[in-house]
Amino acid sequence: MRTLFDQDPSPPSREPLEDGAVLLRGFVTPDAPALIEQVTLIAQQAPFRHLVTPGGHTMSVAMTNCGRVGWVSDRTGYRYDPVDPDTKRAWAAMPRVFLDLAARAAAAAGFADYDPDACLINRYVAGAKLSLHQDRDEKDAWAPIVSVSLGLPATFLWGGKRRADPVRRMRLESGDVVVWGGPARFVYHGVAPLKDGDHPLTGSTRINLTFRKVF
Ligand code: SIN
Ligand code: FE2
User: Fold this and answer.
1) For the CA of 154, the nearest ligand
2) Cα 89 to middle of ligand 1, angstroms
3) Is residue 7 part of a domain?
4) Any idea what the CATH number is for the domain that residue 150 is in?
5) Are 123 and 63 in contact (CB under 8 A)?
6) Which tens digit of pLDDT belongs to each residue from 45-56?
7) Residue 104 CB contacts under 8 Å (≥ 6 apart), including other chains
8) Which of 130, 157, 186, 187 for mutating ligand 1's site (highest number of atoms within 8 Å of CB)?
9) Residue 1 included in any domain
10) What total of structural domains would you count in the chain?
11) Closest residue to atom 2 of ligand 1, CA basis
12) Is residue 22 part of a domain?
């Protein structure tokens, strides 16, 4: 029999961030090994790379994609591309386990029938960061972003709808999922420089899956 004293160390919990945004702690913890296995397969087909921004800056986060289209950046701008510019091939199909989890997380946040067509996969090593930004390259301006954290913990930056708005700092652990859509869809967010560490699942890295409904 389970008692108060032998519960999971961190059972799933739900922290509303604002209207349209929620942090689901531990939501994918049981599936994390299977997700990492899929990331390894996807990266064999489309290796992680450091994209260059239109301003000529090489990003510290390494990226790859799966799904119908992938998010890419180069000197000409940001775009969703059905073809990986590095390999000239289509991106790997989105694994069933990705789609299922993304839809379950979106539903838990109040967004029914989520059907993402893109999954950006970010890989952080110590020092890598993502400056405050909005996700605004998608045609669908209501469907949520579903963001899954795996491996080393990170400090997530959660701002407002204007770049200058105050920013909250939240620790994201492996298995946590942040969902933001509807009225919160264009909130500025980012990731502070990753701290050194060693994680049983991902070694010295953090992996983030970011699902988007592009079209
Ligand atoms: C992103 O904004 O695309 C990624 C966020 C994260 O790595 O948690
Ligand atoms: Fe983002």
Assistant:
1) 1
2) 25
3) no
4) 2.60.120.590
5) yes
6) 999 999 999 999
7) 27
8) 130
9) no
10) 1
11) 190
12) yes
